[in-house]
Amino acid sequence: MRTLGIDYGDARVGIAISDELNITAQGLETIHHNGNDKIVLKRLEELLKMYDISTFVVGMPKNMDGTDGERVEITKKFIHKLKCKFNNINIETIDERLTTVAAHKTMNFLNVSSKEKKNIVDTISAVYILEMYMNRQKQSH
User: Where in the chain are the domains?
Assistant: First the structure.
């Protein structure tokens, strides 16, 4: 069973997926939805048919001081939609502070062009979200 990492944003959603043993995470894609969650839900449904996924891990956009930011409520509404549509999938959240910063540092290190950065930053952030979750799971066992 695989785990799917989700970096939920206003216009784009980064998706990462684990291998079957939940050891590694790799970026899968960025879904461009421009505020239409139906596009995201439809694509997640397609991914569920392609992969044996047991868990969605959604990044929770907390403020640097740990308080809930304005995006937290929007993300919670999206998670509610996930729970309604995919009631047989385990849905977890993880604090995603600094994942976008880490993604930009990684892209700078790899000399990714400015044009490409916009297309892959969400996917790389989703990889970091998924890796944080998988590391937490390993520590708790």
Answer: 2-140
pLDDT digits (tens, 9 = 90+) for 19-39: 999 999 999 999 999 889 999
CA 59 to chain centre: 6
Among the listed residues 3, 21, 22, 25, the one whose alpha carbon sits nearest the alpha carbon of residue 99: 25
DSSP state of 79: H
What percent of the residues of the chain are helix, what percent strand, and what percent coil, each to the nearest 5?
Answer: 50, 25, 25
Instruction: Kindly report the CATH number that applies to the domain delimited by 2-140.
Output: 3.30.420.140
C-alpha 99: how far from chain center: 10
Predicted TM-score (pTM) of this structure: 0.91
Q: Are 34 and 87 in contact (CB under 8 A)?
A: no
